[in-house]
Design brief:
Elements (H helix, E strand, L loop, with lengths): L38 H4 L17 H15 L7 E2 L1 H8 L3 H13 L4 E3 L3 E3 L5 H21 L5
Antiparallel strand pairs: 1-3, 2-3
């Protein structure tokens, strides 16, 4: 059995112009640039478009999740409101992927409902739902008070 000839990715392929082999140049100490930051740099935007909150270590998904959560809790998004992925994406300067991830996280916490083939909605809570939620919160508060902060 004959061994196959495996060429590195930079090797020239038949019928193509030869590609330059990457050089093994030693890294040199680059002199700091004296250029002034642009207006985009002053606003806190990063090259990947993450924005001013990127320095705090929060991902774009986290920032979108927190913004939607704040809008729900503050009453800006009323029960029954459909959450439009495209609008949320454009509002936060993001693609739909981090928006979907944020909505899935909110759905796992019960703050929104994801309905198949319909989208994400702010749930309409009944009196029974609210009573159960307050009962659970009251139980958790009692347990924390009994066992101290490190219990959960």
């Amino acid at each position: 059995m004959q061994a196959k000839n495996h060429r590195p990715h930079y090797a020239a392929r038949p019928g193509r112009k030869s590609a330059a082999k990457p050089s093994a140049a030693k890294p040199s100490a680059a002199k700091p640039s004296a250029a002034k930051p642009s207006a985009a740099d002053a606003s806190g935007a990063t090259p990947n478009g993450a924005g001013p909150g990127a320095a705090s270590g929060k991902t774009l998904t986290d920032r979108i999740r927190q913004a939607v959560e704040h809008d729900i809790v503050s009453g800006r998004l009323v029960p029954g409101t459909k959450l439009d992925e495209d609008r949320l994406a454009s509002r936060h300067g993001a693609s739909r992927t981090p928006v979907r991830e944020a909505l899935q996280h909110l759905a796992s916490r019960g703050l929104i409902e994801l309905r198949p083939h319909a989208g994400a909605f702010v749930p309409e809570r009944s009196v029974v739902d609210l009573a159960e939620m307050f009962e659970a919160m009251s139980f958790l508060d009692e347990e924390i008070a009994k066992n101290g902060r490190g219990a959960f």
